Structure formats: C-alpha cells, structure tokens
Amino acid sequence: MAAVDVLNSAGKKVSEAELTDEVFGIPVKTSVLHEVVRSQLAAKREGTAASKTRAMVAGSTKKLFRQKGTGNARAGSVKSPLRKGGGVIFGPSPRSYAYKVPKKVRRLALKMALSSKLQDNTLFVIDDFKLEAIKTKVLSDVLETLNLQDLLIVSDSEDVNLALSSRNIPDVKVIKTIGLNVYDILKFKNLLLVESTIKNIEGRLS
Questions:
Q1: What is the DSSP string of 60-123?
Q2: Pairing status of strand 13-19 against strand 151-155
Q3: Which of 71, 100, 126, 178 is buried deepest, with most CB atoms within 10 A?
Q4: What is the overall mean pLDDT for the chain?
Q5: What is the pLDDT of residue 1?
Q6: What pLDDT does 132 receive?
Q7: Is 22 within 8 Å of 1 (Cβ atoms)?
Q8: From residue 40, how far is each of 45, 100, 197 by CA, in Å?
Q9: Which structural domain, as residue segments, surrounds residue 72?
Q10: Rounded Cα gap, residues 21 and 119, in angstroms
Q11: Terminal-residue alpha carbon distance, the chain
Q12: Pairing label, strands 2-7, 13-19
C-alpha cells in the first residue's frame, strides 16, 4: 500500500493516508484509457446536425413543365436535390454518437487514471475543505498556499460553498465522488482528494 501525506489548508502535513494498491497501484495502459475517454467524449456530442430531404422541403408538387418537346431534362419536382432550394441527398440527421464500453473496462480505466496520478506525484490529499461562505478569494488563497493549479477537487458530498467558490477560478473543477470519471482526472494536471473520499473511492472500485 502506498502512503501519501495529508495536508491541511495551510499546506502543512497533519497525517498520512494509505492508498490500496488494488485501486491506486494498477499498471497503466493507454489503450484502455483512450477507449473510455473516447466513449465519454462521444456521449457529449449533441448530434443535432440536420438537413431536409426532398420530402421535407416546402414546395409545389406540380410538374415543372411537360415531359417532352421542351429540350430540357425530364423534371417532375421543384424539390429535387438537383435544383436550388431542393432537398439534400444523404444529409445529416439527428443522432446519438454515444456507445457503451463494458462496465469492467470503465472501472479498470478509472483505477488506471487514479494510479497514473499517484505515479506522477500529482495526487494530493487534504484533511478537510469546508468553506464558511461563498468566497472565491478564500479558495484561491488556499490553492495558492498549496501551490496547486490546473486542479480537480473531489469532495465526498454536495458542498455548495466550495462548488460556487471555484466557478470563477480558471482550470479548477469540483466534483463529488459519485461523479468521478476518467476524462476529468486526465484533463487536469493535479488531483486533490478530500481525505474522507478515499474510502468511498476504494469501496466503489474494489
């Protein structure tokens, strides 16, 4: 088991936390991480691009001119894709880009993402992160004391003061343990866990 220092808001070590190798000591495979991140990004796509087919275009159904004798190509509809203002052939239509990755693979990727942070020495633990009020300046001062930027903060419960205080700080995001995901872990350089979240994470992934 790996041991990491538990810091307080002043940046001083107050204790140590043990991290189980089953969750934080997994060998990292980029192919697994890539597959899960790709599926997350695909699920975020809106898929709202759309175009009208000749059936959807508004227009008369009257034949434009008689079939023979005009010297023109035979035309039956003003809504033909060959004409300006007509429908679109094989155009985009609303769709979902989401696809599922097996649950075991998603769980394994989450372990690998956490393990990569520990291996890169970019995983930090804080004893508590309670703010008395919604104050961006207070949170900014704490992060400056800890010397942490480009940071993902994981809390074990809904902390409104912490969440709202972080909104105006660039490259800082706060999520709950239940929302922990591979993409966010890898997106941010540093990961800060509130000490109480460690048991929740290990219990979820063990």
A1: --S-SS-SSSSSSPP---TT-TTSTT---TT------------HHHHHHHHHHHHHHHHHTT-E
A2: unpaired
A3: 126
A4: 92
A5: 80
A6: 85
A7: no
A8: 9, 9, 23
A9: 47-96
A10: 12
A11: 14
A12: antiparallel
User: What is the number of structural domains in the chain?
Assistant: 2
Q: Which two tokens stand for residue 37?
A: 């991140």
Q: In what order do the strands lie in the sheet with 13-19?
A: 13-19, 2-7, 123-126, 190-194, 151-155, 172-176
Residues 139, 199, single domain; the answer is yes
User: Torsion angle of alpha carbons 124, 125, 128, 132, nearest 10°?
Assistant: 10
Residues 56 and 23 in one domain: no
Quote the CA–CA distance of 73 and 78 in Å, as a whole number. 13
pLDDT recorded at residue 9: 86
| Contact between 25 and 115 (Cβ < 8 Å) | yes
Structural contact between residues 154 and 19, judged by C-beta atoms closer than 8 angstroms: no
